[in-house]
Amino acid sequence: MKNIYTFLLFVIPFLSLNGVFAxxxxxxxxxxxxxPKSSPLFGKDIxxxxxxxxxxxxxxxxxxxxxxxxxxxxxxxxxxxxxxxxILKSIDNGINWNVFIEGHISFGAFIISSDFAVTGNSIxxxxxxxxxxxxxxxxxxxxxxSYLRFNGETGVYEDGAELEGGHAVSIANDFIYPATYSxxxxxxxxxxxxxxxxIDSIIxxxxxxxxxxxxxxxxxxxxxxxxxxxxxxxGRSSSQNxxxxxxxxxxxxxxxxxxxxxxxxxSEPNFNSPFTTPVMLDNLDPTAxxxxxxxxxxxxYNNIDNDSSNVTEVVLVDKFIPASxxxxxxxxxxxxxxxxxNFHPFTVNPSSNSKQQPSICFNPFDSSFMMxxxxxxxxxxxxxxxxxxxxNPDTWEVVNAGYNDNSDLSAPYPKVALNMSExxxxxxxxAEGTGGNGIAMFDALYSTYTSISENExxxxxxxxxxxxNPCSSLLNICFESMGAEKxxxxxxxxxxxxxxxxxxxxxxxxxxxxxxxxxDISSGCYLLTIETGKFTENHKLLIMK
Length: 545
Description:
This protein has 545 residues and is an all-beta fold. It contains no helices and 36 strands.
C-alpha cells in the first residue's frame, strides 16, 4: 500500500471544543418497541456549509458515540482543477456546523465515489475514516481507491493509503457492538477492483485494531460484468454475536447500461472470515431481474435476536418498471442471514410515484430499520421505518411523507444515519443551488429547529444540557436561570415511571451545573426531565456500564 501523502496536499484541522468527558464500553441490551403514537418532528432544512460556488456532492453524515455529528461532502475544482472534500462538525445535533477538516487530492479531477465513518467509544480513540475513488473523468466510472484516517478530536491527519484501481467504495465499522477477535473494534472497506477491460472483482479489507492497519484482504467474487456500486454494513445479534460484515453490489454489462443485477454475501463466521457464495437477489423476483441498481444495505446489530433467533439483513434497490418508465424501491430481506440464503423480495409502500435512490440504516435502540429515498414525482424525500422482524414487509411506517422544505431536487441521493445521543434518524442530501451546483443539506427526525429563537421566556433559559451521554459514572447537568424560579429535575424510565427526584428547589439567576452519580443505576435508556413554571424539556439518557 502506497502512503497517502503522495496525493494529499493539505489537511486543515479545526480544534474541537474541550470539556466533553470520555467514556468507554459497549451498549446495553436494546430492542424497545416502535411507538406509533410518538410525534417525531423534522425542522427547517439546514444548509451544512453555505458555499454557492462549490458543487457539493457525495454528501453523507455520521454520529460519534457522544452525539457529535460529522458531515462530509466532496466537490470538484478545489485547487487548480483538483477535487476537494470537507468534513464539518456539529455539537448541537446538526443546527450549527463548522468546518473541521478540509483538503484536496493532488491527482485526478473528480471524486466519483466516497464514504466515511466515525469510530471510537471515547474521545481518546475517536477517529474519522474517509474512503474515496478519484478519477480524471467524471463519466469514466474508474479511478484510484484510497482511504484517509483523521483524529476525531483534533482533525489532524494520521494515516492513509492508496489501495487499487476500481469503481466504487464503502466503509462500515462495529464500534457500538465490537466483533469477536477485534481490539478494540473493527472496520471493513469494500470496493470494486478493475482487473481488465472484461473483468472486475469485489474486494473486502478489514482491520481488527481500530483501523491502525488493514491486514486482512478477501477477494469476494469476480465478474465479466462491471461492478459499479457497492454497499457494506455490520451485523450481529445475541446468539450470533461474533459479528459479520455484509456486502451488496451492482453488476452491469457496461457503464452505459442503466440497470443490472444485485448480489450480496457476508463474512462467515467472523468479521475477518472468508465470504459466503454470492446470491443474485434480483433472480428472486422476475419483475426485477436485470432491472435493478443502486444497492443500499443494513443489518440488525444489537444484543437481541429476531423472531428467527438470528440476524435480519435488508437490501434496498432502485427497481425499474419498464411499463411506466418509472422506478420503485425494491427490497430483499433475510431473517436468518448468518446461515441461509433464504431471501424474500418486497416493495416499499408500492405506489404510482417514481421513487429511487434508497438509503437504509438500522437503529439498535428500538430494533427498527430506517430508510429514506427520492420521490421524484412529488419532489420529496420521504422517511420510512419498519420493525426488524419484517412483518408485512411491503408496508413501512411513513414517518414523514417529505421532510425537505423546498422542492429543488434533481439528484439528491439522500442518506440516512443514526444520531447516537438522540437515538433517532437524521438525513443529508444535495439540493440544487446556483448554476446547478449541489448544496449539502441536513434535517433530522428529532429536529424542531425553525430558524426562530426558542429561548423566549424570561425566567429560565431552555438550554438544558447533560454530558457525557452515554454515561457510566458522573453525569453533569447544566442549565441557566434567567431569574429566580423553582426548578424540578426528575429521572424516569421510558414508561414514564419516576425513579428519582434529582432536584426540586428554587435556583437563583445564573448558570447552574451539578453532578449526578449514576453508578447504582442499571444500564439502559432513561429520560431526564426539567420542569419549571414556563416549560418542560426531556433528554434521553443512556447509562452503560
